[in-house]
UniProtKB/TrEMBL annotation:
Pfam families to which the protein is assigned, alphabetical: FAD_binding_3
Superkingdom classification of source: Eukaryota
Keywords for this protein: FAD, Flavoprotein, Monooxygenase, Oxidoreductase
Protein name: Tetracycline resistance protein from transposon
Upper lineage: Eukaryota, Fungi, Dikarya, Ascomycota, Pezizomycotina
Domain FAD-binding: 4-201, 292-327
PANTHER family in the cross-refs: FAD DEPENDENT OXIDOREDUCTASE DOMAIN-CONTAINING PROTEIN, MONOOXYGENASE ASQM-RELATED
GO molecular function: FAD binding; monooxygenase activity
Length: 412
């Protein structure tokens, strides 16, 4: 048996899941997080965990029972509509064709994971600046003596930069603004009824808005448009202050002026903060030269857009599989770097097709004329291909196209 000390950079879902599993396996692990506390900033919207990835990781970590206390199985309702609120697809609460996909607020998931760790395992206020040799350099201190450093530090990972400075995210051409409607049942009853405790995904050419029910009764809104400049939120470029809610709502009112009243007016009912974003991705199945003693998981390794709903699920599976690799290495006495190289190769092979799915769906929803109607057969077919056995895919895809052909012939 070989003793291994592990440093994890980032206390997001993947970093905390990895720490939890390594702790259960008896591995010495420390998590370094740049935020001052877990409540330092908001944690975004809602996540759906999938049977074979996110839910499997929660179960293996001994956290499924705690997850169940906060999971919303009625949140599995989802519908795709156009700007006129015409329904193109509905996934009911009882639909299990894609397996279980219960919803949980991102902030609640992170709370479950952090609370599962021993006090002091997460060192808050440690924002990584660089890795110099085997030394971690933070804003006002350093740390060393680790056999493995795991970058779970997200899209703009400093660990990834230390491995390969040229391995950087690429802008997708999609701009997004996050809004929130608190207590939606009282403050926005019409959109609350439409969302039906789940999610509504509304699309038009070059435009997409998702409305998602949160555990606290609020509705989280993500309004997306096509913009060529990743720095679109600069007031001199977009023409308004993207940090000011009222200015943002006026801009969105103009952007979505021809959308039906229930979908458009929901934007005007938002309260509190507004968060502008530019969506980036990492190259699909990108391969980097392994740096001894360092590896990546989650968004740091394979950042993708949210259109496939797979980001956090793949990140949690990364954590589960890397934890197994490390614990097995401790037990066997094998070389940790040899084992991590094998993990990285397997991760690329596993996640590459998922990255491709997310990319394809982003192209369908945001860059295809006539969306959503024109892309529904392809979108559903891509989901089928990602789930079904290879031998069944041609038949199922043909069935999907036939279904939508008949649907749009009878109900144009």
């Amino acid at each position: 048996m070989t003793a291994i000390k592990v440093a994890i950079i980032g206390a997001g879902p993947s970093g905390c899941m990895l720490a939890r599993m390594l702790h259960l396996g008896g591995v010495d692990v420390t998590v370094f997080e740049g935020e001052a506390s877990p409540d330092f900033r908001g944690q975004g919207g809602t996540l759906d965990l999938h049977t074979k990835t996110g839910l499997a990781a929660m179960s293996e970590a001994g956290l499924f029972e705690e997850f169940e206390k906060h999971a919303r199985y009625d949140g599995q309702y989802a519908a795709v509509v156009d700007k006129n609120l015409k329904y193109h697809m509905v996934r009911g609460v009882e639909d299990r064709s894609l397996g279980e996909r219960p919803e949980i607020d991102r902030s609640r998931l992170r709370e479950i994971l952090i609370n599962s760790l021993p006090t002091g395992m997460v060192r808050w206020g440690h924002r990584l600046k660089a890795i110099e040799g085997k030394t971690l350099v933070f804003g006002n201190t350093t740390a060393s003596g680790f056999d493995l450093v795991v970058g779970a530090d997200g899209a703009w990972s400093k660990v990834r930069q230390a491995i390969d400075p040229d391995f950087q995210p690429q802008y997708t051409g999609v701009a997004m603004t996050e809004l929130n409607i608190p207590d939606a049942e009282s403050t926005a009853p019409e959109i609350h009824k439409i969302v039906n405790r789940g999610s509504i995904f509304a699309s038009n050419e070059g435009q997409r808005v998702s409305y998602q029910q949160m555990g606290d009764g609020s509705i989280c809104i993500y309004a997306s448009t096509v913009r060529t400049d990743p720095d679109w939120m600069d007031p001199e470029k977009c023409g308004y202050d993207t940090s000011d809610l009222e200015s943002t709502k006026r801009a969105l009112e103009l952007e979505f002026k021809d959308w039906c009243p229930p979908l458009r007016e929901a934007l005007s009912l938002a309260q509190g903060r507004c968060i502008p974003r530019s969506l980036h991705i990492l190259p699909i199945a990108a391969k980097w030269k392994h740096r001894p003693g360092v590896t990546l998981i989650g968004d740091a390794a394979h950042l993708m857009t949210p259109h496939a709903g797979e980001g956090v699920n793949q990140a949690l599976e990364d954590a589960m599989l890397l934890a197994r690799t490390i614990v097995d290495t401790v037990d066997s006495g094998n070389d940790i770097d040899d084992e991590v190289v094998g993990f990285e190769e397997a991760m690329r092979a596993r996640v590459g097709p998922v990255q491709q799915l997310a990319y394809d769906l982003c192209q369908c929803w945001m860059f295809t004329p006539g969306a959503p109607k024109s892309v529904m057969p392809k979108v559903i077919s891509r989901h089928v291909q990602s789930q079904a056995p290879l031998i069944m895919q041609p038949l199922l895809v043909a069935g999907v196209h036939a279904y939508f052909f008949v649907k749009y012939m009878l109900w144009p």
